[in-house]
Amino acid sequence: MSTFSIFLILIIIVSFLLVLVIMVQNPKGGGLSSSFGGGGSQIVGGVKKTGDFLDKSTWTLATILVALILLSNITLISNTTSVDSKLLEGSGIENRQVPAAELPQPAAPATNAGDSTSGQ
């Protein structure tokens, strides 16, 4: 398995986790943080500042996602080999004019001796 494939799998996993964390949040102050007592600063069931946790996890996952994308791009560029044409490098066939004598000549049409349309 190539390193690009590993990065691709990690990108998919982090993207899925980021979607989950964003979907849990409610932009109007509700969501998961309000279900634990309303205030983000209250301690309910051992959970302290759930809103802050979701905020930090969103930024962390977004940063990891950007880093993985950049790293996968670097590995993709380093794994590719140059497939430029030899003509572009100048080491291939040179562009030269071929004299007419060297060009292949078309074959002459064959004539049948028994052809009645020969004009007799």
From TrEMBL:
Nucleotide-binding: is it a keyword of this entry? no
Q: Where is the composition biased (Low complexity)?
A: 99-110
Its placement in the membrane is given as: Multi-pass membrane protein
Where exactly are the transmembrane stretches of this chain?
Answer: 6-24, 58-78
Task: Give GO BP annotations, semicolon-separated.
Answer: intracellular protein transmembrane transport; protein secretion; protein transport by the Sec complex
Subcellular localization is given as: Cell membrane
The record's function comment reads:
Involved in protein export. Participates in an early event of protein translocation.
Q: Write the protein's name.
A: Protein-export membrane protein SecG
